[in-house]
Amino acid sequence: MGDLKQHSLIKAQERLRDQVGHALRAALIAGQLEPGRVYSAPTLAAELGVSATPVREAMLDLAREGLVEPVRNKGFRVTEVSERDLDQYTELRTLIEVPTIGIVTRIAPRERLEELRPIAEEIVASAREHDLIGYLEADRRFHLTLLGLAGNERLVETVGDLRKRSRLYGLTSLDKAGLLVSSAEEHLELLDLMLSGDAPAAESCMRRHLGHVRSLWADQADQAK
């Protein structure tokens, strides 16, 4: 019985580590954790209402993903992403996601595509309600689930990693400027095109969507200078 209890505790700790990691990633993408700034595990743990251990473990996971870097005896520094980095990540996503959208449009059953409509609507609703964390989570689920219909798990993992690395620090500014809703509505447009079976149009919409997000970030970054 003792071994089973210990196993249960380990699994619970692993789940908490994943939950903390997800919360920290969302905060990074939304700009709540600022690039270049050092954060200590105890401070973050107090804000999240957990112990420092799962926070340290989650931050080590983020460090392996290149999102933060350890600072000896201080904590973790949020890595900065240059515009060149963002351009390259966007280029990679375009090379992968645009043709994959065409494939999914041709092979995915309509009912599987229709299952994504509530998520697309959730993205729009979150943007209108200024719920950035909700927006990011719904956006992640929509894109990765959609790509998953192509049947290539490694592709989904690769895009998921690119999404983490290409976090947009200007998301809060986009929301305040009222530009996030138009980007959110493109998910419904994409879904409708795919349901119509128009693969070339769906690919064009996906390419425009990725470029739109990148250009909006660049415009907001320039205004902030």
UniProtKB/TrEMBL annotation:
<dbReference type="InterPro" id="IPR008920">
    <property type="entry name" value="TF_FadR/GntR_C"/>
</dbReference>
<protein>
    <submittedName>
        <fullName>GntR family transcriptional regulator</fullName>
    </submittedName>
</protein>
<dbReference type="Pfam" id="PF00392">
    <property type="entry name" value="GntR"/>
</dbReference>
<dbReference type="InterPro" id="IPR036388">
    <property type="entry name" value="WH-like_DNA-bd_sf"/>
</dbReference>
<keyword id="KW-0804">Transcription</keyword>
<dbReference type="InterPro" id="IPR011711">
    <property type="entry name" value="GntR_C"/>
</dbReference>
<feature type="domain" description="HTH gntR-type">
    <location>
        <begin position="14"/>
        <end position="81"/>
    </location>
</feature>
<dbReference type="Pfam" id="PF07729">
    <property type="entry name" value="FCD"/>
</dbReference>
<dbReference type="GO" id="GO:0003700">
    <property type="term" value="F:DNA-binding transcription factor activity"/>
</dbReference>
<dbReference type="InterPro" id="IPR036390">
    <property type="entry name" value="WH_DNA-bd_sf"/>
</dbReference>
<dbReference type="GO" id="GO:0003677">
    <property type="term" value="F:DNA binding"/>
</dbReference>
<keyword id="KW-0805">Transcription regulation</keyword>
<keyword id="KW-0238">DNA-binding</keyword>
<dbReference type="InterPro" id="IPR000524">
    <property type="entry name" value="Tscrpt_reg_HTH_GntR"/>
</dbReference>
